[in-house]
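Give me C-alpha coordinates for this 162-residue protein.
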Amino acid sequence: MSAGALLKAVMTYNGTDIRRNNHLLKVYGYAKMIGELEALAPDLQETIETAAIVHDIGIKLSEEKYGSCAGPYQEKEGAIEARKLLSQFDLTPERLERVVFLVGHHHTYQAIDGIDFQVLVEADFIVNIDEGKMEKSAIKSVKEKYFKTPSGRQLLETLYGV
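Here you go.
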Protein backbone atom coordinates (compact mmCIF):
# COMPACT_ATOMS: atom_id res chain seq x y z
CA MET A 1 0.00 0.00 0.00
CA SER A 2 1.22 3.49 -0.81
CA ALA A 3 1.43 5.82 2.19
CA GLY A 4 1.11 8.74 -0.23
CA ALA A 5 -2.19 7.44 -1.61
CA LEU A 6 -3.56 6.87 1.89
CA LEU A 7 -2.41 10.31 3.04
CA LYS A 8 -4.16 11.85 0.04
CA ALA A 9 -7.37 9.92 0.78
CA VAL A 10 -7.46 11.00 4.43
CA MET A 11 -6.60 14.59 3.59
CA THR A 12 -9.41 14.59 1.02
CA TYR A 13 -11.73 13.20 3.71
CA ASN A 14 -10.64 16.01 6.08
CA GLY A 15 -11.05 18.60 3.34
CA THR A 16 -10.00 22.12 4.22
CA ASP A 17 -9.36 21.31 7.89
CA ILE A 18 -5.68 22.26 7.67
CA ARG A 19 -5.15 21.81 11.42
CA ARG A 20 -6.34 18.20 11.28
CA ASN A 21 -4.31 17.49 8.13
CA ASN A 22 -1.16 18.98 9.65
CA HIS A 23 -1.73 16.95 12.81
CA LEU A 24 -1.93 13.68 10.91
CA LEU A 25 1.21 14.50 8.93
CA LYS A 26 3.13 15.23 12.13
CA VAL A 27 1.91 12.08 13.89
CA TYR A 28 2.74 10.05 10.79
CA GLY A 29 6.25 11.53 10.66
CA TYR A 30 7.00 10.82 14.31
CA ALA A 31 5.49 7.34 14.18
CA LYS A 32 7.55 6.52 11.09
CA MET A 33 10.68 7.88 12.77
CA ILE A 34 10.19 6.04 16.08
CA GLY A 35 9.39 2.77 14.31
CA GLU A 36 12.48 3.05 12.13
CA LEU A 37 14.72 3.99 15.07
CA GLU A 38 13.38 0.99 16.98
CA ALA A 39 14.29 -1.15 13.93
CA LEU A 40 10.87 -2.76 13.75
CA ALA A 41 10.03 -5.41 11.20
CA PRO A 42 8.63 -4.05 7.91
CA ASP A 43 5.13 -5.45 8.56
CA LEU A 44 4.96 -3.72 11.96
CA GLN A 45 6.30 -0.52 10.45
CA GLU A 46 3.58 -0.54 7.79
CA THR A 47 0.91 -1.14 10.43
CA ILE A 48 2.23 1.78 12.49
CA GLU A 49 2.37 4.13 9.54
CA THR A 50 -1.11 3.16 8.35
CA ALA A 51 -2.58 3.61 11.83
CA ALA A 52 -0.84 6.97 12.27
CA ILE A 53 -2.36 8.27 9.05
CA VAL A 54 -5.93 7.30 9.99
CA HIS A 55 -5.76 7.54 13.79
CA ASP A 56 -7.99 10.64 14.06
CA ILE A 57 -10.38 9.89 11.21
CA GLY A 58 -13.26 9.68 13.67
CA ILE A 59 -13.03 13.31 14.75
CA LYS A 60 -15.06 14.79 11.88
CA LEU A 61 -17.98 12.41 12.42
CA SER A 62 -17.75 12.73 16.22
CA GLU A 63 -18.08 16.48 15.98
CA GLU A 64 -21.04 16.15 13.62
CA LYS A 65 -22.86 13.48 15.66
CA TYR A 66 -21.99 14.45 19.24
CA GLY A 67 -20.71 18.01 19.02
CA SER A 68 -17.49 16.73 20.59
CA CYS A 69 -14.25 15.09 19.60
CA ALA A 70 -13.68 13.51 23.02
CA GLY A 71 -11.57 10.34 22.99
CA PRO A 72 -14.42 7.82 23.39
CA TYR A 73 -16.33 9.36 20.48
CA GLN A 74 -13.19 9.47 18.32
CA GLU A 75 -12.49 5.83 19.04
CA LYS A 76 -16.05 4.67 18.33
CA GLU A 77 -16.51 6.59 15.09
CA GLY A 78 -12.87 6.27 14.06
CA ALA A 79 -12.93 2.49 13.93
CA ILE A 80 -15.97 2.59 11.64
CA GLU A 81 -14.56 5.31 9.37
CA ALA A 82 -11.10 3.72 9.22
CA ARG A 83 -12.60 0.41 8.12
CA LYS A 84 -14.60 2.14 5.37
CA LEU A 85 -11.67 4.14 4.06
CA LEU A 86 -9.10 1.35 4.32
CA SER A 87 -11.33 -1.10 2.45
CA GLN A 88 -10.32 0.81 -0.70
CA PHE A 89 -6.68 -0.21 -0.18
CA ASP A 90 -4.84 -3.49 -0.52
CA LEU A 91 -4.34 -4.48 3.13
CA THR A 92 -4.26 -7.99 4.47
CA PRO A 93 -7.28 -8.81 6.64
CA GLU A 94 -4.94 -9.05 9.64
CA ARG A 95 -3.46 -5.59 9.05
CA LEU A 96 -6.89 -4.08 8.47
CA GLU A 97 -8.18 -5.51 11.76
CA ARG A 98 -5.12 -4.37 13.68
CA VAL A 99 -5.30 -0.82 12.32
CA VAL A 100 -9.03 -0.62 13.05
CA PHE A 101 -8.29 -1.82 16.60
CA LEU A 102 -5.56 0.79 17.04
CA VAL A 103 -7.78 3.60 15.77
CA GLY A 104 -10.60 2.39 18.00
CA HIS A 105 -8.40 2.37 21.11
CA HIS A 106 -5.71 5.01 20.59
CA HIS A 107 -6.88 7.01 23.63
CA THR A 108 -7.31 3.90 25.81
CA TYR A 109 -3.76 3.69 27.12
CA GLN A 110 -4.38 0.72 29.43
CA ALA A 111 -5.16 -1.29 26.26
CA ILE A 112 -1.62 -0.93 24.85
CA ASP A 113 -0.78 -4.45 23.81
CA GLY A 114 2.10 -4.17 21.36
CA ILE A 115 4.92 -2.05 20.01
CA ASP A 116 2.73 -0.78 17.16
CA PHE A 117 0.21 0.60 19.66
CA GLN A 118 3.02 2.00 21.83
CA VAL A 119 4.64 3.86 18.94
CA LEU A 120 1.30 5.32 17.81
CA VAL A 121 0.57 6.61 21.32
CA GLU A 122 4.03 8.12 21.69
CA ALA A 123 3.89 9.86 18.30
CA ASP A 124 0.43 11.27 19.04
CA PHE A 125 1.59 12.52 22.45
CA ILE A 126 4.66 14.21 20.98
CA VAL A 127 2.44 16.20 18.63
CA ASN A 128 -0.29 16.86 21.20
CA ILE A 129 2.28 18.17 23.69
CA ASP A 130 3.27 20.85 21.21
CA GLU A 131 -0.20 21.62 19.90
CA GLY A 132 -1.59 21.82 23.44
CA LYS A 133 1.37 23.86 24.75
CA MET A 134 1.77 21.42 27.63
CA GLU A 135 3.72 22.53 30.70
CA LYS A 136 7.09 20.91 31.36
CA SER A 137 5.86 19.22 34.56
CA ALA A 138 2.97 17.63 32.64
CA ILE A 139 5.36 16.48 29.90
CA LYS A 140 7.54 14.78 32.54
CA SER A 141 4.48 13.01 33.92
CA VAL A 142 3.40 11.85 30.45
CA LYS A 143 6.93 10.61 29.79
CA GLU A 144 7.02 8.53 32.96
CA LYS A 145 3.50 7.13 32.53
CA TYR A 146 3.29 6.47 28.81
CA PHE A 147 6.64 6.50 27.03
CA LYS A 148 8.31 3.10 26.85
CA THR A 149 10.44 3.06 23.70
CA PRO A 150 14.01 4.35 24.00
CA SER A 151 13.51 6.36 20.80
CA GLY A 152 10.30 8.00 21.99
CA ARG A 153 11.84 8.89 25.34
CA GLN A 154 14.91 10.32 23.64
CA LEU A 155 12.72 12.40 21.32
CA LEU A 156 10.95 13.92 24.33
CA GLU A 157 14.30 14.77 25.85
CA THR A 158 15.52 16.32 22.60
CA LEU A 159 12.37 18.26 21.79
CA TYR A 160 11.18 19.29 25.25
CA GLY A 161 14.22 18.92 27.51
CA VAL A 162 12.57 16.45 29.87
